[in-house]
Amino acid sequence: MSLRYPTLLAALAAPALVSAAPVADLSLVQKHLQSVESMTASFTQTDRGGKVLTGVLTLKKPGKIRFQYEKGVPILIVGDGKSLWFLDYSVGQKQRWPIGGSPLGILLDPSRDMRGIASVVPTGNPETVAVDAADPKHPEYGRISLVFVRNATAPGGLMLQGWVALDSQNNRTTIRLSNQRFNAPVSNSAFQWRDPTPASGRK
């Protein structure tokens, strides 16, 4: 694996490491992802250059996600069910990717079978489960490494703590979550957006 998992776990998982770790069950991760219909959380994002941004994440399956950044940050990332959009209001530009062509696709498609694309990564901590996922048929989609902690009150018995996404250009982004809330009603209007390009009126 190309990612440095001790560094990742130190960033995302607070519990101290222990020597004896049970074998994590990939089906448990699949059950968690299938049990989450919606989620809201606060997030902290760190890019490969060390720049840190914060904001609020809203997710609704299938295919909808919104990264609403802190006040004063003129960018927005929205998945509207079909496409993932990167919107930069400071320069009036937008970029689009198919949902399935993004590392985030595994979080947004409840029907996705992880067995052919994901593997459990040993963490040394029985309370922490890490999974690395990439589509071997589509390396251009990048890869994502998800970190969970066991929590009986969370869907499927796991609480998503965050992830590291690595795109096809080797740009790494680390997301750490807090204040997670699962399966509360989320309106589809949360995934509407204003087009930043000139002479356009999409909302």
TrEMBL record:
CDD domains: LolA (cd16325). Keywords: Lipoprotein, Signal. It comes from the Bacteria. It holds the Pfam family LolA. Residues 1-20 form the signal peptide. PANTHER family: OUTER-MEMBRANE LIPOPROTEIN CARRIER PROTEIN. This is Outer-membrane lipoprotein carrier protein.
